[in-house]
């Protein structure tokens, strides 16, 4: 399964429906995106996912901490 947001191929199945075959939840450890298999193609299909919300590898690497983590003060 390809991540719709960052196109990583290293996704994994996080959960499955109690009734087998109804839905699955997938997670991307690269960008932390999670999606349910029953969401619309604009969420689940990498080719239809909005460019506005897409993340590249450089976006992920260069992203800052939010909220910012202050430096540890040595006393
Ligand atoms: Zn991703």
Architecture overview:
There is one protein chain. With 75 residues, the chain is an alpha+beta fold. The longest helix has 6 residues, at 57-62. It is extended. It has helices at residues 41-44, 57-62; strands spanning 12-16, 24-27, 34-36. The protein has a 3-stranded antiparallel sheet with strand order 1-2-3, with no helix packed on it.
Strand order of the largest sheet: 1-2-3
Q: Uncertain regions: pLDDT < 50 for 5+ in a row?
A: none
- Per DSSP E runs of 2 or more residues, the count of β-strands stands at 3
- Strand content is 15-25%
The N- to C-terminal Cα distance equals: 49 Å
* SSE arrangement, N to C: EEEHH
Estimated radius of gyration: 16 Å
Helix content: 10-25%
Largest sheet report: 3 strands, antiparallel
Organism: Amycolatopsis keratiniphila subsp. keratiniphila
Protein name: Phenolic acid decarboxylase subunit D
Pfam families: EcdD_BsdD_detox (PF26358)
How would you concisely characterize the structure shown here?
13% of the residues lie in helices and 16% in strands.
Question: What's the topology here?
Answer:
Blueprint: E1 12-16, E2 24-27, E3 34-36, H1 41-44, H2 57-62
The protein binds zinc ion (ZN).
Zinc ion binds next to loops.
Protein name: Phenolic acid decarboxylase subunit D
InterPro entries: VdcD-like
Pfam families: EcdD_BsdD_detox
